[in-house]
Each structure stands twice: as structure tokens, then as C-alpha cells.
Amino acid sequence: MGIIDEFKKFAVKGNAVDLAVGIIIGGAFSTIVKSLVDDIIMPPIGYLTGGVDFSDLYVNLKPDSEFASLDRAREAGEPVVAYGLFLNNIISFLIVAWAVFLLVKGMNSLNQKAESEAPKDAPVEPPKEILLLEEIRDAIKAGKGL
Fold first, then answer.
1. Is 42:88 a contact under the CB 8 Å cutoff?
2. Residues 5-39: tens digit of each pLDDT
3. Cβ(90)–Cβ(57) below 8 Å
4. Most buried residue, 70, 101, 112, 131, by most Cβ within 10 Å?
5. Sign of the CA dihedral with 78 first, then 83, 84, and 86 last
6. Which residues have CB under 8 Å from 96's CB, separation 6+?
7. How far is CA 68 from the centre of its chain?
């Protein structure tokens, strides 16, 4: 089997398609989370901290120069540590991790519910041939013969 045939076999499997759909939805979800953090969560936090915009917090590694914003420092080519953006990314990560946790928890709950509601199969009686062979075995063990 050639590599092209193997790839076709892999690409047509349901798991590969599910993975692709998950990646696409994850990308869209990432955009929503970024907007949630930047536009909904961080403004009130900035307001409560006296109007501080976390995305503009940075440390200039050259203390002899000052800039009004992180963008201006970067435009000037200054070495900066943008810890505000890092904080925003940590908050984004925590929101995504929480959402994934809730999704997995919900899926596990549904799976457990489906398993508990599934009818339990009654024990299947073995075929008559098996029962006959077991009787013969037991008779031989008992020393009765046939």
C-alpha cells in the first residue's frame, strides 16, 4: 500500500474529520475568548485599578528612555517586557481551560447517564453443544466415563 493510499484511508476516517472540525471551532472559540478578555473582563478591572490598561503595562529594559505606550516603545525598537499582555493571555488561557473543563464534565455526565440508562443484557445461555461438552467433561472428571 502506497503512502497516498494510506493518507486517503486516514483522511476519510471519521476521527480525522472530527479533529479538523474541532480545530476550526477551537480557532473561532479563541477569537471569542480574546474578545471576552479584552473587551468585557479587562475594562472593569482596569477601571477598578484606576484606569490601568493591562495590555499597555510593560517594563522598559533601558531605564534611560521613556515612552507613552508599549506600542511606541516597540516602534522605537526598545527591549521591553510586556507583562500586561502576558497577564491578558493568562486570563484568556484560564477562561479557555475552564470552558473545556465544563465541556468535558458535561460530556462525561451525559456518557454516565446514557450508560446507567442502558438496559442490562440478561446472561446468555450457552449453546446446547457447549452444555453437552461440559457434561461430558464433568462425567470424565468424576470417573464415570460415558
1. yes
2. 887 777 777 677 778 888 888 888 888 888 888 88
3. no
4. 70
5. positive
6. 29, 30, 33
7. 39
Q: Return the half-sphere exposure (C-beta side, CA atoms, 13 A cut-off) of residue 67.
A: 19
Q: What is the pTM of this model?
A: 0.55
CA–CA dist 7, 30 (Å, integer): 29
CB 73 within 8 A of CB 60: yes
Q: Which residues of the chain have pLDDT under 70?
A: 1, 14, 118-122, 144-146
Q: Which residues contact 83 (CB under 8 A, 6 or more apart)?
A: 57, 58, 59
Give the integer Cα–Cα distance in Å for 87 and 45. 12
For domain 3-120, the question of CATH label 1.10.1200.120 is answered with: yes
